[in-house]
Design a protein that fits this description.
about 400 residues, alpha+beta, Phosphorylase Kinase, domain 1, Phosphatidylinositol 3-kinase Catalytic Subunit, Chain A, Domain 5, 3 domains, 5-stranded antiparallel beta sheet, 4-stranded antiparallel beta sheet, 14 strands
Length: about 400
Amino acid sequence: MADRPIYTPQDSMHLWGLADPARPRWVGELSLVANARSVGLQYGDSWLAEGFALSEDLPLRPGLYLPRDKDCAAGAVDDARPDRWGERVIRKFERSPRLSLLEYLYFAGDDRYGGLGVSLRADVYEPWPSAPIPGLGSLDQMAEVVRKVLANEPVDEVQQRLLRPGVSMGGARPKSLLMIDGEPWLVKFSEGEDLDTELLEHATMTLAARCGIRVAGTRALRVGDRHAVAVKRFDRIGHERVHAQSANVALRAAGEDLGYPQLAQLLRRLAPADAIAAQQQELFRRLVFNILVDNTDDHEKNHALLRQADGRYLLSPAFDMVPSAQGLGYQAIEVGERGTESSIDNALTRASSYGLKKDVARAIAREVASAVDGWQAHFRDAGVRDEDLAILSQYIDGENLRSQRRAFAR
């Protein structure tokens, strides 16, 4: 990697569309607003003429779009920023006289999630430079750099090149990119907690697939006596990049509350007409699964929509599914008429929001419950340790979830 240039703080930068990275397109100007606490967007004339609205709250019209809240960026631009882990890496690695949200967007670099990029120039797309993505042979070295960041130890410049700060749109777990079989995968590392969480994520995702849920591909990778988990990027198709919106951005842009029923209704507007029914059923299936495996961290940034060639949107493959091991009894976003209560009965109160009759919704719940009923055997086959199974069983096989599962499982 060439030496990083010396960065001088800028109050404005430029947003680029990278659907075809070989032909980047200038979208418009980003600027600091709200006393440098937020970032606004103004579309350029060429994008107004031939581009698309990045989200429903950023229609193709002239003028400066401001974010709804402080400390965020306008509309779908907010999904191009690094997550909390990425911000932590930037704070440690980048020597900048200022770190506003605009700098975070810039330092996220060219590997960020989705199909947008940030450059200092409007005439040429020049992202913040980065080294080539490392391969599997660098996994242990990457894990060591993560350990140093977590421990707040010095990291030399060569080691810094192993981590990417902008590859995810939500979360604080350590992560970066890894090349596997010639394709970029997101790889997550342990924070040193008691549970082998990364292996549990792989086991949970593969169990979700057995429940008929479309999931991102995962691989469990041994690191010392624990694991990392690699997740195949779904915002890349070959060399092309896919424009994406989190449910957080999409629902707020539509003026909706944050919840599964609201996202199901939004799909009626955003999805292709011939895919709406299947998409809504898929979302309901994911909700039931998350309830039954105690995944209560299913917040609005753990659901995403991917833009299709016709301009419509489809749900991304499911991701970030892992038991919370807390037994909270509440999901992160709305489930049904009883708010966020973690129960299938609560989910069924809003079955019509998914275009489902109660008997069809119950049939889906039965399918998922039947598959989840064998979770311990599935996790054991995935290599999960007995001590981790014992911890999870307190919650997944606790009275609340087990009774729900058995009420529906065949």
